[in-house]
Amino acid sequence: MIIRTITGSFLATLLSVSVPGYSAPLQAQRYSDFDHYVLALSWQPGFCETMHQNQRVLPSECQNQQEQADKTQFLTIHGLWPDLPRSIARQGVDRQRWMRFGCATRPVPNMPEARASRKCSAPDTGISPSLAEQLVKQMPGAGGSSCLERYEYAKHGVCFGFAPDDYFGAMLRLNSEIRHSAPGAFLASHYGETVSRDALNQAISKAYGEKSVKAFRFMCHGNPAWLTEIQIAIRAGSINEPLSPASFSPGAHPGNCPAQFRLDTAGF
């Protein structure tokens, strides 16, 4: 693909033109003393299959799944989660509690809790109409009756004082970069197939270097397993730069996917 040969600086320019709101850097106004973000991306058919198998009420984005000529379109945005700030950890908060409650964590930030079962009860984010139009293309749960963007901002964004357009604009940019990377191409080219984690690791290494492999967590469901989500740890200081080997924050947990898993297809 041509875009893989574009230099980092030109790629950033290209994406800033195509994603309204990206041009302003993402900056935390409060609790900025954290090390990394987790970019959570869904493999949309796998997410919907999990909802179906668990006999959950299917959200509209799963009911209305359609095949796409460009299979990278199935890599969609779940959220962007700042890690536990050190100033909050000093109040006796551990990472498990932080990831469960986010901005509602007590004693701080102690903001109103956003509940996954009532996402649309969270306040409107106030994002611009132009960005909202772009967001729904990459975050199918945004808007409508799912209100994923409200939930994500209330739980992971509002207490940091992120400007909503900058917060969601960063997600759009990052997801676009992953879609156009070697891992994105791997997922698209093996759509509907069973793949090995080793082969996917090789694609990550090709794009971002061997050390970056440990920054990618792959989450699966079912037996035989299918992919549902990719969680990518990105250094806080690199969040406004094009992704490179220096962008990632390797961790110890590779996720729960087995050695082989399926890349599910749209529909049930």
From TrEMBL:
GO biological process, one term: RNA catabolic process
Signal peptide: 1-23
GO molecular function: ribonuclease T2 activity; RNA binding
Presence of the UniProt keyword Signal in the record: yes
SUPFAM superfamilies for this protein: Ribonuclease Rh-like (SSF55895)
Gene3D superfamilies listed in its UniProt record: Ribonuclease T2-like (3.90.730.10)
PROSITE patterns: RNASE_T2_1, RNASE_T2_2
Keywords (A to Z) from UniProt: Signal
Presence of the UniProt keyword Signal in the record: yes
Record family assignment: Belongs to the RNase T2 family.
Record protein name field: Ribonuclease I
Organism annotation: Mangrovibacter plantisponsor
Classification lineage: Bacteria, Pseudomonadati, Pseudomonadota, Gammaproteobacteria, Enterobacterales
